Amino acid sequence: MYSSIVSLSTTLDNVCIDPEIIQSLKDIVSLPLLHPAIFKIGILARESIGGVLLYGPPGTGKTMVCRALARECGARMLQVRPSDVMDEWLGNSEKLARNVFNLAHRLAPCVIFFDEIDSLFRSRTSGDSGHHTARNIAMDGLQSAQKNRDGGIVVVGATNRPFDLDEAVLRRLPARFQVKLPDEAGRKAILQVHLEGEAFPEVQLDDLARKTDGYSGSDLKNLCVCAATEAAKESVMNATTDGTGRPELPTRVISPKHFEHALTQVSRSTRPSPELDRWQKSFSRRPSVEENVHGSKKIKYTGM
User: Fold this and answer.
1) Which residues contact 28 (CB under 8 A, 6 or more apart)?
2) 184-265: which CATH architecture?
């Protein structure tokens, strides 16, 4: 069993994605785990929304938001990659797939996060019986939405290729949200998060956000690391020595020239996908936001 019990250091303050998506995920993921008694009567005792699918380009915060939500509601998070449950030896894949859900129930409350879920639940094209058996066992776990909810388990899948998913899997993940590349305001917010604790008095984040159109959150992190590394190298080069011969390093300050260098080294790693946008129009379950008579907002789910 190689799936990871994730260390949950991320908070929602560090997650820069659409606030409406975060609120919807709180309703679906956090609410049942924080207040299970509310779901013991009426229709909510009989029915469950089921699992969640987050889809979009790599590096846009899909894993981070799940970590933050799990931390917020005091749950564990079990991160499962395709290689964790697929094994070349006959019978091992089935055992590994069962172990994922068995372990989650022992760790409950727990969020099971299937990374690259399309690799495990892609449309049937192969004759690999071992793969299909493990796939079917994992599918059984997805189908047990009510059992999972009552047992303090929430299933979330993430992919950048939702169009490769089997339709039977999509039916078990009815809450679907597209996590897009950040816009200019989002990029500025991400830069501010990554530059916390750094000195960058002359850097204009508005200008930098404009220059990084198409960058993912992960790309922006790498950009900041590259700029900070350049500043660190400059600090070492400008170091002086004290009376004992030990170097005295000046305070590391990131300047615009460090980011100009970083922009030549770190480019965007992905491009907007028309295919994703087309799929979103056909299959997404994006919540709309309505204002009630008191002026406050509420989430309305469509198509679920």
Assistant:
1) 49, 52, 154, 175
2) Orthogonal Bundle (1.10)
